[in-house]
Amino acid sequence: MKYVEIFWVFLKLGCTSFGGPVAHLIYFRQAFVEQHKWLSEQEYSNIIALCQALPGPASSQVGFTVGLNKGGLLGALLAFIGFTLPSVFLLLVFANYLSLFDSSAGLAALQGLAILAFAVVLHGVLGMGKNLCFDTSRFSIALLTFITMLLAESILTQVAVIVIGGLLGFILIQASPYDTSTNINNSVKSKKGLKLAPSISWAAVLLGLFFALPFISDTANQFYRSGALVFGGGHVVLPLLEEAVVAAGKVSQADFLAGYGATQAVPGPMFTFATYLGFLQSEDGGLQGALIATVFVFLPGFLLVLAIYPFWQKLSANTSLQNAISGANAAVVGLLAAALYDPIFTHAIGQPSDMVIAALAYAGLARFKLPVLWVVFGCIAIKLAMVFVPY
Questions:
Q1: Is the model's pTM score more than 0.85?
Q2: Which of 29, 242, 333, 377 has the most CB atoms in a 10 Å sphere around its CB?
Q3: pLDDT grade, residue 193 (50/70/90)?
């Protein structure tokens, strides 16, 4: 029953998590911290801090780690399948119907989803800020991170601000009763059997595939290397995938860009762009190519989690590092706040009516506690009405 619950919760998230990696983290927080209470606010933020510092699809790694913490390796796999399956299916369908998004109705629907993402992330950032930045030191770290990300945005900056936030937390933050939830629950850890295998074994598999895959499958090798070399999530993998399939003559530039646009329209992880490319490529294509591309673009990020997460648990349980982790958590809040402005706000809000829709969506989520799916349909419906009904 536990595993059915894990799969079902992540499947619903996979169907409704629009807006890209940052929005996904907010949807996850609502599900795992507020609704199902699988994790405390601090435990969830610790997982985010770890996955933001690792190469790979950050939001999918967070989901994988939550599943791992809840149900061991099987729980992690079910979390991945549930969260990824809807976008995989939709991208396979969109491969044949991309022209629909060239219409005014298609563009309006996409804009409605972008507005939804802004409202969701705003709600989540305010909630996380209240819980994780409750004193002057933590607020100052979040503010410094926010300013830094706006003025010097890059993937290296994302990693640096979390590290610096941890150092500042170690220096500035004094332990408080609020920090007692920072530790991963030891009873949960022992029940779920996170001693799946020595971390060195997962690291050996990770490195071994780098050397073995070129002799086994060119498709698996290309997507595995692309997934392993990405810091910052789905958007950053774009140039690596372009080199792997477009430069190699496997997918045309026009089809590549069309598929990237379709990926923006579907819920779930950005890395499922690999599904579309695997299906279309000139060799090893079709459903087999889509499956290989999907599995191997995600695999290195998940192997990294399996190798490092047990150490991260031990570190987070060390009381001497509690303040550093609190500082890193505050930096995560600043990081998400910066992403709320760019790229989410800058892409979603183009006119006053968009801000009106965003305000209604935020009220629906924060005040009236409406299901996310209702708010999704509401944002799309209003934007479509603005296209077809003169005002």
A1: no
A2: 333
A3: very low
